[in-house]
Amino acid sequence: MRIALWTDVFVPNVDGVVTRLTRTLDELGDLGHEVLVLTPGDPPARWGPHQVVRAPSVAFPWYPDIRGGLPSPRVERAVSAFRPDVVHAVNPVWLGAWGALSARVRDLPLLASFHTDVPQYMSALGLGPLRRPVQGWIRRTHNLAEVNLCTSGPMVERAEALGVRHVALWPKGVDTDLFHPAKVSAGMRSRLTDGHSEEKLVLSVGRLSREKDVAALLEPIRRLPGTRLAVVGDGPHRPELERCFAGTPTVFPGRLAGEELAAAYASADVLAFPSTTETLGLVALESLASGVPVVGARAGGIPFAVDDGRTGLLVPPGDTDALTEGLARLLDDAALRGRMGAAGRAEAEGLGWRAATEFLAASYHEAVERHRSRRRRPRRPAG
What we know:
alpha/beta, Rossmann fold, 2 domains, eight-stranded mixed beta sheet, six-stranded parallel beta sheet, 41% helix
């Protein structure tokens, strides 16, 4: 199939959505599909066999690392020349919404994917007054699609609660070759503990933005003796977080990727994941694949990734005492860490990207068939 994919987030950005998209593009190429990626920012001209076209964009004042794509004649010409069989709109709020509208004007089958609970993010960023109109906009743009996919069970429920129709679950996936317990590295552990490898190591991975709740780890790291914290990632909130954690045993190694990121996971004792805005929590799956248990908030999509009591511990959102106790329980019990880490690795081994992408390809075909069926329906006579 020929797929036009509209997304506001893509390489060089690093987050869970970008990881899913890039791994999906790899698998789609291997399966013989061709994708035209339309995205703002400064992306590469190609991703594997797939062409990438840059859209003009504007920066969001409250989130400067993310740019909203804008429609342009160049983008529309690229879509016309590509002649897609189906359109995929990723988070149709900004550029994705234009992709959804463009599909409707062109009378093309449309699949939309729900990766981010944007209204909840807006509340977390202090933009609560915009929540209701944004919810209405999300409902309208998603309901232009023949198929809507969500990345976790809780997000299926969230989308349906917003009034989104034709919702299905896009299975989770993780790279179990890259993220593996064998990637443990004495050098990486020394780097993440600032040379104190003998101490316990709590890892945090993700975009450093306010809604990720990384600051929730400040009090626990103060209360946990002999414990170090490594905050891996970058983003607009990093300078404030570095000031906040000054004087604590915390390092900010910046953004890691590939083998370095795999070594960081495998070399830690526990992953801390206090965010309450995750639609899936891909970093939790990457940690489990690395044999490292997770202590996360019982919120959003994290319970879909972490099996409480088996592959990690879930705690009430915003409960500092519970978060500290959960981390202490795992840090102080090596046998429990080992059991949970082994269980997490075993579960991750069944979550390859190929199966998730084959489901997506089948969903594209479903969107095409629904579109054809809708076009075949006789129109009601006027009057």
